[in-house]
Design a protein that fits this description.
Shape: elongated
Number of helices: 6
CATH architecture of the largest domain: 3-Layer(aba) Sandwich
Structural class: alpha+beta
CATH class of the largest domain: Alpha Beta
Strand order of the largest sheet: 5-4-3-6-7
Radius of gyration: 20 Å
CATH superfamily of the largest domain: Glutaredoxin
Order of helices and strands: EEEHHEHEHEEHEHEE
Number of strands: 10
Largest sheet: 5 strands, mixed
Length: 214
């Protein structure tokens, strides 16, 4: 197995620590304790798909902030390249990139997070997105191909879903959005399974499939 992809991070374990140079000075994972973090990589500065993604993240940054979530970009480019690209985006598209971008020329952060996939590129990070919770636990990770941009709406939706699950101890169905019914956790005993069928708070299709409104 290639060393670049050994030791991929795992869900619900501590996210890999980092101490990295960014466009806003040095940043560590500990700087983000107490809030959610979306850490996302892109293949290269001054590329069209990445530019659309960065603008979309920037335009939705306030929505992430309302959910106590910070944004942090990364690519295997220098800080000077990042700064020039950010200025280029402002000049050409009138979009301000307000979040920091890690300059990962050493590829240390990219390797720790499994962002280097030799089948895609040896020296560029793939489109990887990691959602890290306020306790620095890795809660979700999503990979996209080099050729296709991400949906920022989906990360906001997923963040809403995970925060709802954490707050209320429930699960959420496919494409759940705030205001939709949530899924009641599985029953732990046969008695509980039968009783929930007659619980007026729940809507049950069967003992294993019950939903409720919040």
């Amino acid at each position: 197995m290639d060393n670049a992809i050994i030791g991929l991070p795992r869900l619900n374990e501590n996210a890999p620590a980092f101490d990295a140079e960014t466009t806003e000075g040095r940043k560590t994972l500990d700087d983000y304790r107490g809030q959610w973090l979306v850490l996302f990589s892109h293949p290269a500065d001054f590329t069209p798909v990445c530019t659309t993604e960065f603008m979309a993240f920037a335009q939705r940054e306030a929505e992430f902030a309302k959910r106590n979530c910070a944004l942090l970009g990364l690519s295997i480019d220098s800080t000077h390249s990042h700064i020039a690209w950010v200025k280029n985006i402002k000049d050409n598209f009138d979009v301000e990139i307000g979040f920091p971008i890690i300059a990962d020329l050493s590829m240390d952060v990219a390797r720790a997070y499994g962002m280097i996939h030799p089948g895609a590129a040896d020296t560029s990070a793939v489109r990887a997105t990691f959602l890290i919770d306020p306790d620095s636990k890795l809660r979700a990770m999503v990979y996209y191909p080099m050729s296709n941009g991400r949906s920022i709406d989906e990360f906001i939706r997923l963040l809403d879903a995970m925060q709802t699950s954490d707050t209320h101890g429930v699960a959420t169905p496919e494409n759940w959005k705030p205001g939709d019914d949530v899924i009641v956790p599985p029953a732990k005993t046969a008695t509980e399974a039968m009783a929930r069928m007659h619980n007026g708070e729940y809507t049950c299709k069967d003992f294993y499939f019950c939903t409720k409104s919040l």
